[in-house]
Amino acid sequence: MAEPIRVVVTGAAGQIAYSLLYQIASGAVFGPQQPVFLHLLDIAPMMGVLEGVVMELADCALPLLAGVLPTANPEEAFKDVAAAFLVGAMPRKEGMERKDLLAANVRIFKEQGQALDKAARKDVKVLVVGNPANTNALICSKYAPSIPKENFTAMTRLDQNRAQSQLAAKIGVPVKDVKRVIIWGNHSSTQFPDASNAVAIVGGAQKSVSEIINDDAYLKGAFVTTVQKRGAAVIAARKMSSALSAAKAASDHMRDWFLGTEDRWVSMGVVSDGSYGTPRDVVYSFPVTVTNGKWKIVEGLTISDFARQMLDATGKELVEEKQEALDVCKD
Ligand SMILES: NC(=O)C1=CN([C@@H]2O[C@H](COP(=O)(O)OP(=O)(O)OC[C@H]3O[C@@H](n4cnc5c(N)ncnc54)[C@H](O)[C@@H]3O)[C@@H](O)[C@H]2O)C=CC1
Ligand SMILES: O=C([O-])CC(=O)C(=O)O
């Protein structure tokens, strides 16, 4: 059995963490041979609740769980971690956009960037889930200059999973048989869920999703808006934001980053190098493949006029969010 790796989850007393911790501790993320030592960070008033979570983790009797450290101190939480799930942040309520959380949440990611810089392994892989996830990831990276910026990512995997699931239901195939759906841009209502490269297996043969569905108005209309607004639809129904599906997506993202994707495309928010004419130095979601722990943007895709408009609109929003976040972080 390998040596345990240290993994931190922030917002560990919250909703998403309640589903996520089991997945990490049971081996679903880092594999069935990799023991984990969990660091659980939350704020001081939540330490009582966190104690209950620690009790429940013990009561799961999980063979891969090597230890648990609950704490309200970010530097203690980030000490020597190889993977960081940054979940802790305020969730939105009905009627809000995710960027309305920026002023409240971005300072958390400034502080945690500084603490990661001091305490984490320099090869730590950081996944930001707390909203607005892309801009929080950018700020976190800016305040952790000793860690490569490639190691900071934002979660758009939930959007990818939603998009894949919508297309599978429309076509009438299992979700695993739909591939190469892309989420471009921001984890917000300007994101572009793009099915133009997607393929599905129907009757044993792989075909283009556009050809199978044969309804351009749907693929550019209802499909896009359903995925863009799915988070709000869950909040309207549950009166709380998605947690089960968010935890599953966080597990998918980190598993693929650690263990690789082979030829699968997955969407991750990464610091943009300007690929596909997107603005540089914002955290933009691209299709990537992962080999040996390193992600690489899928190259050479054709961008239609419609896609160009969508990529530009979500890029513009990210540039605006970045400016607002930098202003908030000045104080
Ligand atoms: N990127 C994505 O696809 C998704 C992102 N989210 C976002 O994830 C975040 C967490 O959502 P939930 O777990 O439902 O919220 P929650 O309110 O149930 O839990 C958040 C936890 O974070 C803690 N927290 C607050 N400030 C902290 C700090 N400075 N350090 C450590 N912990 C801190 C809170 O005390 C609380 O226990 C929200 O911002 C939500 O909008 C939610 C779903 C999907
Ligand atoms: O919509 C929200 O506020 C929570 C979230 O990010 C999602 O469900 O995608």
Q: Could you list some keywords that capture this structure?
A:
331 residues; alpha/beta; Rossmann fold; L-2-Hydroxyisocaproate Dehydrogenase, Chain A, domain 2; 2 domains; six-stranded parallel β-sheet; three-stranded antiparallel β-sheet; 12 helices; 14 strands; binds 1,4-dihydronicotinamide adenine dinucleotide; binds oxaloacetate ion; Malate dehydrogenase
Kindly state the percentage of residues in helix.
40-55%
What is the architecture of the largest domain at the second tier of CATH?
Alpha-Beta Complex
Q: How many helices does DSSP assign?
A: 12
List low-pLDDT spans. Answer: none
- Briefly note the structural class of the backbone: alpha/beta
| SS strand fraction | 15-25%
Distinct small molecules bound, one entry per kind: 1,4-dihydronicotinamide adenine dinucleotide, oxaloacetate ion
Q: CATH class of the largest domain, please?
A: Alpha Beta
